[in-house]
Design goal:
Number of helices: 10
Distance between the termini: 63 Å
Order of helices and strands: EHEEEEEHEEEHHEHEEEEHEHEHEHEHEE
Bound molecules: S-adenosyl-L-homocysteine
Radius of gyration: 23 Å
Helix content: 25-40%
Number of strands: 20
CATH topology of the largest domain: Rossmann fold
């Protein structure tokens, strides 16, 4: 097994539990290796740090999987880690649907597994993890006896690791249009063609947060995807709900979700550009009791954080203008590049420009099946805020 040595004075972040080792943190190495191999990492003065997989094509050169010298990275390792992650989910009450593996937060860097009742969707986002796909599938089969496993590796970050994008079955083929239960509602999930893994489990608890503010309300939801928040609004007693999303596919599924839950009369959906509509309707003076916004990440890179902040400010400013005095704004941000304090500051700036006062109702993050590790700050990414707009 090849050995890598950290450079002098490198280590605090890594010693404190962060699994990533960047190319510029590494000094000497000994021995041969292939991209994706498991290698050993030592400090500058030769003490053992951990074992992980290496990829010379990636800026994140090594991702550590264990800190124990004698722990083998093999089928058994993946079985144990996945089993541990499942036991943890069960212990905090996430049983039917959950993010079973949330990468670094579960000690399995670059691996995502979403569980939708008996179906599993996998992403292996680094070369070293890709090489263990067989072991991962085998572990899922042993622990869950799943009805189906599907790979959604159609994600651009794979290219940073020198891998192709791909998707397909990792089990016998099955009908990839499934139905899940959440908070007493049913939702269609399109595992093959839906966004990301097909469904946003990270908002599953936040969807319940709107229960009390939507009773008898006229609700507008922008960036509604398959209408999950909209249907919760109807379920909790909204008078009318209008959901907007730019994706025709998402809107078609949102309509099917309305039918599935018997809310065809309450919930309407339109495939439009929400930025244009919110701007136009704010100008026209339209008003709603509740406005909900869950836009896509405005940036994927640190260089564009300013752009993201401007985007969040604009959209929330319009959202506030569309909210009746005393109504509620429900707003979220899903990129870890905008930290919680920065998001709150941005909302405050929007309120100032809109000449509105905000009263905080609820301030949340992602559901706990996406664990936040305090020594890996990027594991916290979702911000979810409800304010009354006075
Ligand atoms: N709240 C949803 C997730 C929203 S993800 C849920 O919990 O399921 C963001 C959504 O914004 C995606 O569905 C995407 O299609 C949509 N979107 C992106 N750009 C848009 C635009 N300009 N106008 C409307 N929707 C847009």
């Amino acid at each position: 097994m090849a050995k890598f040595f950290l450079r002098k004075k490198i280590g605090d972040r890594i010693m404190n539990g962060h699994p990533w080792i960047f190319a510029n943190e590494l000094g000497d190495s000994e021995g041969d290796f292939e991209p994706g191999d498991i290698v050993e990492v030592y400090s500058y003065n030769g003490s053992f740090v951990g074992k992980g997989y290496v990829n010379p094509a990636s800026q994140i050169r090594i991702r550590l999987l264990t800190r124990h010298k004698n722990e083998k990275i093999d089928e058994g390792f993946f079985y144990n880690r996945i089993k541990e992650a499942w036991d943890y989910r069960k212990s905090i009450g996430y049983v039917e649907n959950c993010r079973l593996i949330f990468g670094e937060a579960d000690g399995l860097s670059a691996l995502i597994i979403d569980k939708f009742n008996d179906y599993f969707v996998i992403q292996t986002l680094a070369l070293g993890m890709e090489r263990f796909k067989g072991a991962i599938v085998e572990a899922l089969e042993r622990i869950f006896k799943p009805k189906g496993i599907y790979e959604r590796n159609d994600v651009p970050v794979r290219e940073l690791e020198g891998m192709e994008q791909q998707k397909g079955f990792l089990s016998a083929p099955f009908d990839t249009n499934i139905i899940i239960n959440e908070n007493g509602l049913k939702f269609h999930v399109d595992i093959e063609n839906g966004q990301k893994t097909g469904y946003f489990l990270d908002q599953q608890d936040n969807r319940r947060e709107i229960e009390h503010i939507v009773k008898g309300a006229d609700v507008l939801e922008a960036f509604c995807y398959t209408g999950t928040f909209s249907l919760h609004a109807a379920h909790y007693g909204a008078k009318s709900v209008l959901g907007l999303d730019i994706s025709e596919n998402a809107v078609a599924t949102a309509r099917r979700n309305a039918t599935l839950n018997g809310f065809d009369d309450t919930c309407k959906f339109e495939a439009v550009n929400a930025f244009d509509k919110l701007k136009l309707w704010a100008k026209e003076g339209k008003k709603y009791d509740v406005v909900m916004l869950d836009p896509p990440a405005f940036t994927k890179s640190r260089e564009n954080i300013e752009k993201a902040v401007t985007g969040y400010k604009e959209i929330n400013l319009r959202g506030m203008k569309l909210t009746k005095p005393g109504g509620f704004l429900v707003t979220a941000s899903c990129t870890n590049l905008v930290p919680p304090e920065m998001f709150l500051k941005t909302i405050a700036m929007a309120a100032k420009d809109a000449h509105r006062t905000l009263r905080q109702v609820s301030w949340q993050t992602q559901a706990s099946d996406h664990p936040i590790l305090w020594n890996i700050p990027t594991t916290q990414y979702l911000k979810f805020l409800i304010v009354q707009v006075l």
